[in-house]
């Protein structure tokens, strides 16, 4: 078989494709944009409420729990910020570029994600665990043993689950990067 | 813009869908999603079209980029066992099986090779492919020759 034959077969594919209605896609896009706006508003309100609550309970008067809570909340906020920024960076890559330029930008994006995964995220996880250890010290002092162990076990389980998902995501992104670099 | 878009959508949907179908190993549902993603981008960027190339080339440029972007969303691509297909082809030589064999062979290529050969199969001139991919015309000529050989060998002999 020659390439011309392959091309003929390809081009002879019948026009069975029915043209789907594009209106639902447009509506989905509008809804998605609305949801993105709502998410941003919710995140902003959550941040404001957290700060207000912090002052309301005068948490700044107790330096130990304050440090622990600040580390925990700080890490979560930084993580959310990094993810939002990262999503925005990906969306900024223009589909109007040539394939090679587009691919170069995608590779650059995934290189940054790789750096995040192997440098920033481990540091954040260490800080988060330091925060947890500080809080555990206070939980141990002020809470009943039963409740304390409940918190410890819940934390260990949730951390293991979180670690599993982070690992899965990182491996997926590394494989995408490898794929892009090889192509 | 709406009327202009509708016209573009009607005129170009089939070839976009066919290219997407080739990219996702003949998976109709994925190809439909991918084609929809392409036309959402077309719809979003239509006012940025500067008439420097034909609208067809411009749409193909969006299509190949959306295809490349698609790998991040869908790592679990449908894997077709080539040996099984080969056996099927030996049993019944109908067009559908031949198409499936072609999809499997295209799928074995690297991402960029896959995109380039799909454009070649669609009958686009090499100059236009160079414009879409950002490679030099000379480069494309060499690449196309190499990928054509690979694909022909695969479809003919199953390797």
Overview of the structural elements:
Chain B: Keywords: DNA-binding, Sigma factor, Transcription, Transcription regulation. Chain B: GO terms for molecular function: DNA binding; sigma factor activity. The complex is a heterodimer of chains A (183) and B (159). Chain A is elongated and about 80 Å long. By secondary structure, chain A is mainly α. Chain A has a domain of 125 residues. Chain A contains 5 helices and no strands. Chain B has 2 domains: 78 residues, Orthogonal Bundle (Rna Polymerase Sigma Factor, Chain: A); 76 residues, Orthogonal Bundle (Arc Repressor Mutant, subunit A), CATH 1.10.10.10. Chain B is 77% helix and 0% strand. Chain B is globular and about 50 Å long. The chains are: A mainly alpha (183), B mainly alpha (159). The interface between A and B is large, with 36 and 51 residues.
Say which CATH homologous superfamily of the largest domain in chain B is assigned.
Answer: RNA polymerase sigma factor, region 2, helix turn helix motif
Helix-strand pattern of chain A, N to C? HHHHH
The CATH class designation of the largest domain in chain B is Mainly Alpha
Structural class by secondary-structure content of chain A: mainly alpha
Keywords (chain A): Membrane, Transmembrane, Transmembrane helix
Family (chain B): Belongs to the sigma-70 factor family. ECF subfamily.
InterPro entries (chain B): RNA_pol_sigma-70-like (IPR039425), RNA_pol_sigma-70_dom (IPR014284), RNA_pol_sigma70_r2 (IPR007627), RNA_pol_sigma70_r4_t2 (IPR013249), RNA_pol_sigma_r2 (IPR013325), RNA_pol_sigma_r3/r4-like (IPR013324), WH-like_DNA-bd_sf (IPR036388)
Keywords (chain B): DNA-binding, Sigma factor, Transcription, Transcription regulation
